[in-house]
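I'm stuck. Please check this protein.
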Amino acid sequence: MAGKNLRNTDKIPEPTLRRLPWYLSNAKLMRERGEKYVSSTQISKQINIDASQIAKDLSYVNISGRTRVGYETAQLVRVLEDFLGFTNIHRAYLFGVGSLGGALLSDSGLSHFGLEIVGAFDVKPELVGKTVNGIPVYHTDEFEARMQQDQVRIGVLTVPIAIAQEITDKMVAGGIRAVWNFTPFRIRVPEGIVVQNTSLYAHLAVMFNRLNEAIKK
């Protein structure tokens, strides 16, 4: 169960990054139940991932466990939160205050995972100048001026498909370095800009397809 420091030359596999938050959530539950130690075998039983895979994933994290005992639960939570960047606050702007954008602005839970949306942008007169969950909504034309004041590096994209690329270009030109894309449109960005695509519709398509296959059996 020995852990190791992740070197700058190492690149953690994306599937591992996607699984680590599951381990974190499980460890938090164990901590709340008063469990002092948690093993990869215990986590495996809860989330149906092979224990050897969990141990391999955790080898990227600077933590070590005790043989036949496991990892100290509180320490595992702290280390994973720090490793995943959840303990640092990353300021973000949201573009497109529609139904999905409004829901994200109202989700106070994002701040618990290190993301703080400090401003939103739209062009609708009924939205500009208002606040959603205490977050101000500005006109899109104010973006460049706001960037000079707020020094934001992350943009959350929830605009209609028709303007997704246009707004992305505007964000990148204004200094945004990472885009969390909630649209089903595959945006194009210059090299060095980070993009995370999270299309709800794509996940729906997968779920519907698997549901149909299950019904046919």
